[in-house]
Amino acid sequence: MSETVTLARKELLDLRRDRVVWIVVGTLGLAVVLSVVVASLDFRAQLADYEAYAAQVKASGSGVTPAAPQLFPLQLLRGGMEYVEVLGALFALMIGYGAIAKERSRGTVDLLLTRARSGTSIVMGKLLGLAILWAVIMAAVVVTALASVALIGGSTIGWHEVGRMALAGAAGWVYAVFWSAIAVAVTTLTRNSTAALLTLLVLWLVIVLVIPQIGDTMDPDNQVPGGLFKALAIAKPDEHAVLHHFATYESLRNGLEVSSLSKLYERFTFATLGIKDIYNGQSLAVVWDGTFRYVIGALTLTGAALTFAAASGRRIHTLRRS
Amino acid sequence: MSTAITAARHELLASVRAKAPYALVAAFLGMVAASTFIGWRTTVTVTAIYERVLADGYTTQPNPFTDVSPLYYVRNTVIYVLLIGTLMAATLGVQSALRDRKAETAALIGTRPVDARALRTGRLLGLGILLAALVAVTEVVTWVSVGLLVGGPLDAAETLRIAGFGVLTWLLLVGFAGVGMLSGRLLHRERTALLAPVVVWAVIAFVVPQLGTAARPVSLLNPVPLPAQDSGAFAWLSHALAPIAITERFKTASGALLGSPTTGSAAASALLVALFAAVALTAAILVRGTRTQGVPHE
Amino acid sequence: MTSTAIALDRVTHRYGTRPALVDLTLDIPEGEIFGLLGHNGAGKTTTVGILTTLLQASAGDAVVAGHDVRTAARDVRASLGYLPENVTFYNDLTTMENLVFFARLSGLRRPEARIGEVLEFVGFTGHDHERVGTFSKGMRQRVGLAQALLHRPAVLFLDEPTSGLDPEGVRALRELILRVNAEHGTTIFMNTHLLSEVTKTCTSIGILRSGRLVHHGTLADTVGAFPTEDALERAYFASATDAPA
What we know:
Chain A is mainly α. Chain A contains twelve helices and no strands. The longest helix of chain B is centred in the middle third of the chain and has 35 residues, at 116-150. The two termini of chain B are 36 Å apart. Chain C has helices at 44-51, 73-79, 95-105, 112-121, 137-149, 167-184, 195-201, 219-224, 231-242; strands spanning 4-15, 18-29, 33-38, 59-64, 67-68, 80-83, 155-159, 187-192, 204-209, 212-218. The chains are: A mainly alpha, B mainly alpha, C alpha/beta. The interface between B and C is medium-sized, with 25 and 28 residues.
């Protein structure tokens, strides 16, 4: 155990000097802030539209005033959470790849192998270092997100928001650990660093972008601008009644979506933060009831990725220069 | 001229021989091949939904999918080009730029009596030919698969539209290949050289359109355009940032060619894609690398 | 009267503020096999870098085969062949594919016949269609020498050519260097820190210490001053005590 901790410490020292890590922290922070700015401007635009409409209604002498749009602070984080989902995964892959690939390019793996008890302890030491790094990065994302919602969105941040955001941060940490484990395992098992890097890029594309994109694009409601059911003037209950007849298609589409860890992470985070309307203002019990399957799925996949990484340690000699 | 042709031949040979990017090429070709089926399956389902809705008396609206072009089935190809194709092209560009450093042949090249710009032009030419071949394969796959689904060969007009879409795709891809080459030439490590064009791509594909439309990043990967924002700040930003939102311009121009609903001017969008390619290629030829020697360590 | 193949006139080069070469002045006549000796970091590779146009000197002039390295770099490149210390190629390509590429860059239109000729000269036939990535260091060194000779250069630069080779490889390469010089009259500039190689191959030598040329002369003159078995070794270490501080 102390060997793993020593390796993790050395990894953290290396990571602290790695410029990519600082670029990652800066980019993620900036993306979150930017998304809050855009969402706040969008809300203000909606509010202005509403006020103009309400004035028009009042002028026409009608007594019925439509409901004003309401600001839910954590909903301002939707874009930011999507950036964590897309870019966070990519950055975790790149940092994880670097942690292993540098041993190959420097030729230092022999020095490690002649000292450590096993390849597995080397790999797990590195992963521990990466997990600590991502805990710090996610904490920074949580603080940045809350601060931007308060300062840019002009919302009051209470314990409710802090708690929910901390949960989303924890989910982001599990998500980043999954991608770090995949990166470490693939890089350890691939003889050629370029092949490892490109394999990781393909995995990122397929799991983070392509699979959710297919699910999204097959959604019947996404077929016309503004939504199919809106275009056909169909109310929500009727929409559910109609879709009930297409249950097989919908299950297939949903199955495809939840086969991607990114979608599991997204569904849990959006529910926790109330970004998804049906969970907005609901208690954690309701959120848990709706999302525990995703949590179990994500934890199982992360556990599998960690096991894969630990097992790859047995083949760490592939990193030696021939 | 002979230097450029020699470099182009070498680029083609070396790119085909290097197996590392094959997975990306396979993902691109595979998804383009699958996209017609995805588009067809979705259209069939939505038509069935409409018929059900009509039969149950929930709507009196006309079917929004009546008389859509058969090319509407391939609307997802546009997304796979800007999602996988652009990253594939950038990766090929990075690998091309790093090849001499990885093989440690920079000194052998540097002691040959050749003009460095001619060499870079030749490499881009080689990559351009390779990308043209890949695009041609995707267009043939598209033509055949749509033909199979509609039960007959596509007519001349539709074929011409697919060819036009191919040209537009090629322009976008060579532009990103140029971005990849620049990154490989200017950055020290392979990881950062590859990461930089992906981040540039994410900014172009997600951040810039988000600033102009308030759209959520991932929703921009849906081929159906989002309703335009017409409120003050967004309308202004949308106009100001439109020329940089190259992937959105590509979606607009491609949508017009493939008969999908679009927002914005198709001709102006196609011109901007061409301009992007021209700027990226010129920069890739003119900008000298600061990192011409030394293995790209991690 | 023989003319000068390589001339350096007060060439100085700095990496940042650290001087790598200081006022190097040297004339090497055509047809010589010149060995540049020196400890690690003495400035040998920097000198070759400047003469092969891979580096631009901070100050001073250098001429190779009658062309100024600064103002006529292309002509210089057309006249030289270069074998780097760790010669590597595009591993995914075959011997022939690699050599065709380098030959065309050197201006040869249809290089296949010439490549066959050179491969035979360096004793490396029968591997034309094998990928270079599978070759040993010795095999790569032969392909490296072949690429350097393809365009019949007037001057051949060899940077630590025997580094990492086994005794058989060292002997074979030495014989090839002597043949190139004897049969084609090629001037050879060789960097090395192996004194025994210089004794067996070179006609003249220079000794660099911390970027300064502390000795230049024919091999006969150099070892003549120390008429013992280890003459060159004695000359080399004697030069250290003469070197300016």
